[in-house]
Amino acid sequence: MTEGIWTEKYRPHDFDEVKGQKNVVKGVRAFVKQKNMPHLLFAGPAGVGKSSLALVITKKLFKETWRQNFLELNASDERGIDVVRNKVKDFARTRSIGNVPFKIIFLDECDALTKEAQQALRRTMENFAQTTRFILSANYSSKIIDPIQSRCTIFRFKPLERKDVYEIIEKIAKEERLKINEKAKDALFEASSGDCRRVENILQSCAALGPNITEEVVYSLVSVAKPKEIRDVLMLAINNRFKEARDKLLDTMLKYGLSGTDVIKQIQQEVWNLEIDSKHKPILVDKCGEIEFRMTEGSDEFVQLEALLAQFTKVK
Fold this sequence. Notes:
The chain is of the alpha/beta class. It has helices at 5-9, 22-34, 50-62, 81-92, 115-127, 146-151, 162-176, 182-192, 196-209, 215-222, 227-238, 242-256, 260-271, 280-296, 301-313; strands at residues 39-43, 70-74, 103-108, 132-138, 152-156, 179-180, 212-213.
């Protein structure tokens, strides 16, 4: 999702405000206290605080001069070797302003860098280690070449837990004077999958409709069906009421504007909540994976979803 106004407004400005990453925060706080740190690699899913923590580190180290000592590049936009050779090198070769002996270059989404650019970056990290520290952020650390990984201290971020997401929701509700009931909080957590940025964007969209935020408002805006509706579709199929299951699934997709891959993800999650013999559940999840693969290869979405429902009718 794109960055919303609230995403920037509620960005953490202190280590204590970074939710759900206790061990990571503990490690980087020690580096800031010493005013010395190695190159860092932040790896983990989107919206869990990687970019925010990089900014907190910079602001705590450099105070008022942080803007002059900080370069942020989004590698998914500028992913070629010329970026490393020009922008990164030009910034890295000059000394820092203030009493910290290095500058910071933050490369966001650096797993999007080409292999050639990563090789050039490896040499740059080596040559300018005296004047520059790199903070690399990636969703998939496996896409970063081994020489870069070996030069960095790697911190792995995890999706935010329910209590962390609830704290963020309650803080925003208080600041923006919103009324959010418990079911709406549950819906926000389920829709976001631990992605704080997504929570903030959904809340901002909901608040545009009014200060009272309910479960119905959340589900109507995020293009996600209620878990109960998906579960009802699956139970109809399991009870050999295939035509009813198919019709209800089509109605649900049209009601929420869902694509086939959206539905597959929700079905896969709901399989584990079905009251069926546990030995059938892994088989059905395997079928979900097969159908999802066929969709990505270009097969007709609704035909494939019908085929999946047909597999559920075989359970009994």
